[in-house]
Each structure stands twice: as C-alpha cells, then as structure tokens.
Amino acid sequence: MDLLKGIPVSSGIVIGRVFVLDNDLTRVPRRRVTEDQVPEQQTRLADALAVSVAELERVYQEARREMGDEAAKIFLFHIGMLRDRNLIAPMEKAIADERYTAEYAVSSTFRALSDRFAQMGDSAFTTKVNDLADLSERLLKHLIGERRAELDLAQPGTVVIARDLTPSQAVGFNRKNIAAIATDLGGRTGHTSIVARALGLPAVVGCQSLLAKAISGQMVIVDGDSGRVLLDPDEEQIAQYKAYIEQEQTYRLSLRDIAALDSVTRDGVGIEILGNIEFPEEIPMLLDLGATGVGLYRTEFLYLTQPREPTEEEQFESYKACVEALAGRPLTIRTLDLGADKYTQERADNPERNPFLGLRSIRYCLRSIPMFKRQLRALARASAFGPMKIMFPLVTNIAEVRQARFLLNDILEDLREEGIAHDPAIPIGMMVEVPAAAIMASSFAREVDFFSIGTNDLVQYTLAADRTNEQVAAYFTPMHPAVMRLIREVVKASRRHDVPLSCCGESAGEVEFALLLIGLGVRTLSVSAPAVPNLKRLVRSVSITECERIAKQALTFDSDTQVAGYLRDRARRIVPEAFDGRAAE
Ligand code: PEP
Ligand code: MG
User: Which residues line ligand 1 (CB under 6 A)?
Assistant: First the structure.
C-alpha cells in the first residue's frame, strides 16, 4: 500500500481502479506494468510503430510532390529508422525484461541513442539528434492518443491518474466511467480543479510523486475531502472508506433540506447566494442546491470543448439556454477568459513564456476584435430573452473597459438597425481580480455598473503565487492581510459609488472566508454548486454584527496563519456541522 497526500480540490470519496494517463511528451515517467500486462505493452509498441510508419509514408509522398525527391528523402530515413531492428529490439527488451510501459521503453531507448549520437562529436551524428526527438515524439503521440481513446471505453469506477490535466481534458471525461482524478501537479483554484468541482468529480491534485508509483489496473482510493490517495489499499482500509462514503451520503442528504430556505442572517439581512457555472447544463442542479441565480458563467469553456471557435449562433444558443433556464433570476455572463491555464489548441501549440502575466482574458479579446464581437453580438441577442449582465475579466486599465463598452455599443446599434431584439441597457461589469483594479476601484466605479471580486486571481497576483502550482500552495491564501485590505478597499468604493458588488472566487465558498467577506460588507457570493448548501447554513447561523466583529478582529492580524486560525475557530463555533463530518479530519 502507498499513501500519498495531495491537495483536496473536489470532495467525495471513490474506491476504484487506476488508469494511468501519461500525457506529457517531454517527461515520461519510468513505470512498470504487471507481468500479465507485458504482452499488451508489446502490442502497443508494435502498433505505434506501424501507425507511425504508415503516417510517414503519407508524409513522404506528399513531400515528394511538393518539394521533390531530394528534400523528401529525410522521411525515408525516418521510416528506415522505425523499421530498424537495432532500434526496435532494445525497446522490446525494455518491456520484456524490465516490464516497462511502451511509453517509457520508447522514451528511454531514444534518449540513450540520442545521448550517444550527441557525444560522437561528428556533425553527421549530432544533427540526427533532432530527427530522433521528432521520431520519439511521433511514437509517443500515438501511444498517448491511444490511451486517451481507451479511456473512453474504461470501466465504471475508473480513477484517472496523470502528471497534470488541462481543464479541457477534465471537461471531456465521460462521467459514466471516470469516477475521480488525481494528479501530481495543480492547485486548488486552477481551472482543472474548478471543472472537477463543477462536474462533482472527486479530485486530489499536487500529489507530486503519484504518477511514478501508480500502475494501471491497481485498486485505489481517492479521498477528495482530506487529499489522500491510497494505492493498493488493504481490506481494512477499504472497509473504513466504505463507512466514510456512507457517512458522507447521509451528510449530503441532510443538506438538501436547507435548499428551499431563505438565505438570511439571524438579524434579517439577505445574503444572495449565486452559482458559478461553466456550462448551461449545470443550472438545474445549482437551483436544486438552493442558489438563486448565476453570478459567473465562464463562457470560455464553450471554446475549450471543441477544436474551433464556436459560431455566433452556437454561442447565442448557449447564452439563451442560460437565460431561459434561469427564468428571470440573476445571470452574469463573463466574456471570454482564455489564456493562462485555459488554452485553445492553437495557443497551446505556441505557448507564451509566462502565460499568467500574458495575453489573457480581456487583453486577448481586445487583440482579437472580430472574435470578441461575435461573442458580444451573441450575448446581446440572448439578452432579449430575459435579464442578463455582461462582465469583463482581468481588467487592469480603464481604457479596456471603455473599449469593450464601445464595441458592445456598436453591436447594439447594429442590432437596432437590423431590427433584432435585444436589451438596450445591458448592465456592464468587471472582475476585480488584479491588485491594480482593487486599488483603483473608485475610478473604475465610474465606468461600470457592477463589480465582482475574483479571489482566485486576486490572491495569485497579490501574493505572486501561481494558482496552479502545488509547490506554492501554502503561499496561495485569501487569508493574507494584503488580500483582506484590498477587498476592504473595493467594498468601500462600491458603497461610496453605489456600485453593486459580489465575490465569485472559490474562497467565497469556504465558510471561514465567507464569514470574513460578509463582515467586510459583501452581500452577494457566487460559488461552485457543491458549496451552496454549506454557505446557506452559515448565513442562517450568523448575524451581521457578529460577522462585522469578526472581520474587524481579523483585520488586526498581520499574518495569514493568524487570520486563518482565528477565522477557522470562529467558523467552527458557528457551524460545527460543517467541520464535524469527515472533512474536518
Ligand atoms: C477568479 O479569478 O477568482 C475567478 C472567479 O475567475 P477564474 O477562476 O475563472 O479565473
Ligand atoms: Mg479569474
């Protein structure tokens, strides 16, 4: 049995079977398979070689047509290499003798050969190093692609274990057979974690060395509440976790009763609890759990789930579906927030050096005006069917808001001329998720109709801690006094200028932090669906005066650990049931 500890990011416990997804071409871990899986690995290797040769033959013919015989020869050389027994035999041997996976056999054999070539000093050999890298990548792509295809056919109860997963991979998992995920990399507020929560897929990230230890087919327990992953658990552990699963189901059922109750504090102040969604289909579940609308619809997932930009019509249908599903309830749709950890394939192929500080969100949209306009037009058309607000992400400059508003006005004008129905006064808001926006909130308040604080990015940019990096997870905390002070400034500006304010970062769903937000003056919280019931329970158990007292005290501390300890203690007293379950272990 191996016990690994990671970051719990999506709650729930699953007892299932491992499916290792080595999807990183540049780092293939040394992994072994069981004796009976050896023939399967040999077949996988043979298939990958055959498919790659067939592919290269097509490339060769094409190259001959376009570049002539001489230039196309390089592909003949590649084909020759993939047929060379001197190359194939060591790979087969690595699988047979060492029980390595086909992926590792390929990468280690090619690496050894390329090291040898590089050391020869003769340029005829050193130039071949690139050819080898090219061939190894081609083989690995097939092996990995084939594993992804296998995943679609996996048995129910499959637990995907990978070094890292992109948000679009997580979205693509078939919930019928994929029961949980666990990865070596990742952070609590990375978008893969957010997607896991949205899908109700128990998940642990940041396990650091899980991939190297896991073997496909092995039994595994993923505990998305405590962050534990148990490989090859014993009978006793399985029995213990089965009991936990039952306990958890009872607790979840008990939360159902709260969904229909009002979200008001003990002293009668209403706290609006909205939900964050990635897909319109999440709305019914969100309403079922007691949310009263959508405070953040992350539209970029429309772009991440298909290989091309969705058409205006496709977007219109999705936005309209949201408006209709909400039937008059609040709906805030955020414009495209692509970039950073959310790439389209095209951008993934041309990575930026530092994508979190790069061309993301509103910046990217303002550089891709035709695309941005297609989205704005689809949104404006959907606004004819019910209330809707539009929100811009990652705003750092006033000019960005003005330019975006200008584009929207242009579109509204077009629609008017074309006689297409729309709301002529759609409220326009912005995310406050960089320190620049928080500090300048008073100036921005004159430009927008509402604010929404995004703590995921605000914490990341204030504390210089990458939200997707497990190595700095301890730095990444909304409890840092600097973050609290920035939020306090935004609340003040919103009150002074009478601009409605909400908070839609993941932390808004954590009871300790919600206490603080309410105490600081935030009255609308938008959170992922699973967090709604607990949050409502908290709201109904506190008074505003109590929250204000707590916030005032929290602001006196100068370290995040003090703040966290203090808030946890307070929250425990107010809603012990949110902690007394297994999650509090
Ligand atoms: C945030 O940054 O807090 C936020 C809500 O947006 P996202 O998580 O999509 O970046
Ligand atoms: Mg953000």
Answer: 194, 296, 298, 337, 433, 454-457, 504-505
DSSP per-residue string spanning 147-168: HHHHHHTPPTTEEEEES---HH
Residue of 78, 191, 422, 480 with catalytic role: 191
DSSP conformation letters of 280-298? GGGHHHHHHTT--SEEEEE
Cβ partners under 8 Å of residue 450, min gap 6: 332, 389, 391, 427, 429, 499, 500, 501, 502
Residue having the nearest C-alpha atom to atom 9 of ligand 1: 298
Alpha carbon nearest to ligand 1 atom 1, residue? 454
How confident is the model over 27-69, as pLDDT tens digits?
788 888 999 999 999 999 999 999 999 999 999 998 888 888 8
Ligand nearest to the CA of 336: 1
Query: CA 510, CA 527: separation in Å to the nearest integer?
Result: 9
How far, in Å, from the CA of 458 to the mean position of ligand 1? 8
Amino acid identity of residue 301, one-letter, is F
Q: Give every CB contact of residue 228 below 8 A, 6+ residues apart in sequence.
A: 3, 4, 5, 6, 204, 221
Spatial CB neighbours of 128, under 8 Å, sequence gap ≥ 6: 114, 117
Query: Contact, 107 vs 94, CB < 8 A?
Result: no
Number of the ligand 1 atom closest to the C-alpha atom of 276:
5
Distance 396 CA to ligand 1 centre (A): 15
* CA-based nearest residue to 222, from 236, 564, 237, 235: 237
Q: What is the CA(479)–ligand 2 centre distance, in A? A: 18
142 is catalytic: no
HSE at residue 157, side-chain half, CA atoms within 13 A, is 8
Q: Read off the pLDDT of residues 182-196 as tens digits, 9 standing for 90 and up.
A: 999 999 999 999 999
Compute the mean pLDDT over every residue in the chain, rounded to the nearest whole number.
93
Among residues 322, 365, 503, 504, the one annotated as catalytic is 504
Ligand 1: which atom is nearest the Cα of residue 296?
Answer: 5
Long-range own/partner contacts, residues 242-248 (CB < 8 A, 24 or more apart): 242/15, 244/13, 244/582, 245/13, 245/15, 247/581, 247/582, 248/12, 248/13, 248/581, 248/582
Cβ < 5 A residues, ion ligand 2: 433, 454, 457
549 C-beta neighbours (distance < 10 Å), count: 13
For the segment 251-301, what is each residue's pLDDT rounded down to a tens digit? 888 888 899 999 999 999 999 999 999 999 999 999 999 999 999 999 999
Burial status of residue 307 (CB atoms within 10 A of its CB: 0-12, 13-18, 19 or more) = exposed
Judge whether 388 and 331 are in contact, CB under 8 Å: yes
| Atom nearest to 393 CA in ligand 1 | 6
Distance 231 CA to ligand 2 centre (A): 34
Kindly give the distance from the C-alpha atom of residue 402 to the centroid of ligand 2, in angstroms, as a whole number.
20
Question: Does 422 participate in catalysis according to the annotation?
Answer: no
Q: What does the alpha-carbon distance between residue 467 and residue 460 come to, in Å, rounded to a whole number?
A: 6
Give residue for tokens 């306990």. 247
Q: What does the chain come to in residues?
A: 585
CA atoms within 13 Å, Cβ hemisphere of 133: 10
Q: Whose CA is nearest to atom 8 of ligand 1?
A: 456
